[in-house]
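Contributing new records

If you add data, match the layout below exactly. Sequence lines come first and carry their own label; structure lines follow with theirs. Keep one chain per record. Anything else will be rejected by the validation script.
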Amino acid sequence: MQLPAGQKLLRVEGKEIRTWEIESGSAAVSAASSTGKASQPAGGTPALLGEQILVVDLLKGIPLNWRLTIETEKVLDALPADVAVETPHALDVKRENGLIALRGAEELALSVESASGLERVDAEEFGRMVADKAGNLSSVFRFSNPEFALHVRAGSIQPEIEAVARNNFRVSAEQVSLSALMNYTIKRAGVFTLKVALPDGYRVERVSGNNILQQAEHAGSETGAPQRILEVTLKERTSGTCTLDIELARDFKELPKSLDIAGAHPLDTAKLTGFVAVSAEPGVAVKTESFDGLTEIPAVSLPDYATVAGAGSVLAYKFISSAPKSAPEWKLGVTTENVAAWVRAEIVNTFTLTETLVSGRALVRYDIANAPVKELRVRVPAEFKNVEIAGANIRSRKQSGDVWRVELQNPTRGFYTLTVTWDEPRAGKARALELTGISADGVERETGLLAISAKAPLQVSESGAADLQRVDAGDFPDWAGSLDNAMALAYRYVRPGYRLTLDVRRFDEAEVLQALVDSARFTSVVADDGQMMTEMSLSVRNNGRQFLEIALPAGARVWSAFVADQPVRPSLRDGKLLLPIESSGADDGAMTVELTYVGTNAFPRDRGSIGFASPKFDVPLKNARWDVYLPPDYDYQNFSGTMTREIAPAPETLSSSFSSLDYSLMEQAKKASAKVEVDRDVSEARRQLAGGNMREASATFNRAKTRLYADKKEDGDVQQLEKDLQTAQASNLINAQNEFVTRNAGEIATDGKISTQQVQPSGGLNDNAAAGQQWMKLQQAQEIVTAKVQPLRVNLPVRGLHFAFTQVLQTESGRPMTIQLFTASTKAVSWPMRGLTAIGAFLMLWALVAILSRLTLRADRA
C-alpha cells in the first residue's frame, strides 16, 4: 500500500497478518503479530512517513475478499485551514475504486473547496460498504481512478445566538428602575460567556439567570464609541435556551420633565427581537415624547404583560428591525409629570369620662389615592395631655403647635390607620363639658364618628350639638373594633368644625349588701331563777365582709363559738363580738356560725311581764326562728314583740328535769349528725383531690378531722383520705424539687442557652415515702406554731314548756328581735283568794256547828 506523505500511521488491522513493514528511502519499520493485528510499530511511536510503502506479510494466501484497515493522522495548522485530502492506494492491482467520506469533529465545520475525479453519492451508500455505520457525514464521494483530487476547508463552528430582549422601565419620583430580561436561544455550538451592553447612568443592582458563575463589567468600543459591557461567565458550555435577568436603577434628585429611555442590549446575536415597556409609580404620569426604531403596540401584546399590568397605564413598544447590531438602534423619549396625592380621612373618636379625667382614643383611617405620601398630619387640641401616636412603619413624630407631623419609613398608598390616645383632666365638678376630638390636617375631606362613654357614677346627656347627627352602634365600621358596652351617646359628622356640649351628672353610689344572715335559729332554755342559756345558729352569705359583728344582750357571756364548724375565739370591739367570716365564693354557698351564750333575766316568782331580746347584728337578717323553753309551773299569755308566735294546739311540755339519759340521747344524735358531715366532707375532699385542688382538699380534710369528737376512734375514711393527701403532696414535692434542680443545674452551652442534657439531681426526693415523711414533718411544724382553740360543744338542757316564735325579715342592722309575754305562777295564791278561803272555811264551820246543835237539841227532846 502506498501511504500519503506527511501522515502518521496509527493502526493496521486485518486477518491472517503475519508481519507488516514500511519501506522508506533510508530505513524500514516493521511489526509482527501472531493475532493478525498490529497497532503501531514496536517502540510505541508512530512513524513519520514520506513517500513510503506499507508491506503486509500474510500467514497464507489471501481469500477472494479480504479487508485491510489502515488508520493515519495528519496535524493541521491553525484554523481555518485548506486541506488536500489524500488516501492510501493499493499497489500492484489492476483496478482501484472506492468511496471517500468527510466527517468533521463536534465543533469543526468542513466545506468542499474543489473535487476532481470524484462523484458525490448518498451517505447511506457509504454506510452499506463499511462494517460500522458512521453517522454525521458531511459529504461522500465515489472514485473510479486513484488519480483524483479533493480539497476541503476546515474551520471552527461559530454559535448562532437568537435573543428576545425585554426592557421594562418603571419611573418613580426619585428613581428610574430597569428590569432587563434576556431570553437566549443558542444553536450549533455552546457558549461560555454572554455579553450585554448596558445603558449609561444606570447602576447594576442584581444579575440572575441560569448557570451563572460570575459577572464583570468593563469598558468596550465595539461601535467605535465607549460602551459599558457586562460580561457574564457561565459555569459550563451552554446551548439551547438560557435566561439572563438584570436589574438596574438610576436615581434623580428631581425627576426631569423630559426623560430619555435607554435599555440593555444583548451582543453577538444573529437575531434580536425586543420589547420596551414604560410604566410609572403612583404619583408620576408619563407620556410618549418621541421614539425611533420602535413601533408602539398594545400593552397586552407584551410577553410579560401579567408582570407589568399591575403598574397601571403602560407604554409598550416593539423593535422594528431584528438584524443583529452592536448597539441599540432604537431611541425613546418620554415626558414626566408629578401627580398630587388625594387624601381622605375618616376618624372614630372615642371619649371615656370619669370623675376626674377624660380619656380619648382616635382611629384616623386615611384613604390615599393618585400618589403615595410619606408624611401625615394630625391636629390635636393643645389641652390634650399624654398624647401617643402609633401606626405601622413610623419613622418620626414632630409637634408644631397643635399639629403633629408623622413621617413614615416609606411612602404609602391606599388605606393607612393611625391610632392616637390622649387624656384631659376635668376641671372641678363642672357639669358642662365641651368635647373636641382629633382631626386630620391637610386632607381633601374628613368625616368621622364620636362615641361617648361614662363610667359609674356619671351620667351624660346632650346639652348642645352643632353639625352632628345621632347614630347607634351599628353605624360604626368594622375597622373601628369593638365598642365600649358603657357607650351612652354616638354621633356622626360630615365635616370638621362640629361642636358638642354635654351635661355630666354624678349620682351617689348605692350601698351594696355585703353580707346577709340567710337564716337564724335561736334555742333558749329559761330556768326558774331567770338564768337563760341560748344556742344560736346562723347561715351567713358573705360577699366582702371580714367580720360579723354581734352585740349580745346585757350581761350575757359567750361559752362557745364556731364558724364553718371550726372553733374560733371571738374578739371584742366596743363591747361587741367580732367573728371572722370568709367569702362565700363563686358558688354563693352559705357558711354556718354557731354561738352559745348564757345570761340572766328578771323572771317573776308569782306573776308579771317578761321580755327576751336577741343579739344585734350589723347585717340584715331573714327567716328567723326562736324556740323558747319556759318553766312549766306558770301560765303564759299576752304574747307580743317583733316576733310572731307560732299557733299550736297546746304548748309542748317536756320533762321538768334533764337527766343523764336525756344528755346521752342528745349526744348520740349530735355524733350521728357529725358523722354525716364528716362523710360529706370526705367525699368533697376526694372530689377536689381528683381535680388537682390540693389546697381546697387539705382545708376540707382538716374540717372533717376537726368534726370528729376526741373520744371517738379515728374514722377509716378520714385516715385513708389523709394517706391519699400525703401521697399527692409527696408527689408534688418531688416534682417541684426536680423541676427546680432541672432549671438551675443545667449545663450552659457556649451560646448561653441551657443544654438539653440536664444534670440529674443527686439529692432529689426520688422516694415517695421520704417525701411523705418530709411533708408530715412540715405539717407538724405548722401545727406546733399554730395556736389551737379547743372546741367547747354544749348540749342545751332542753326542758319546760316549748314556745316557737318567727320573724320573716329584719332589714335594720343593730336592732334586736324581741318577745314580750305575761306569766303567772300556778302554785302561788293571792290575798283575795286567801280571804275568800277563810270566809268559806268559817261558813262551813258555822254550818257544821249549827247542824251539830240541831242534832243535840233533838236528842235532848227525845
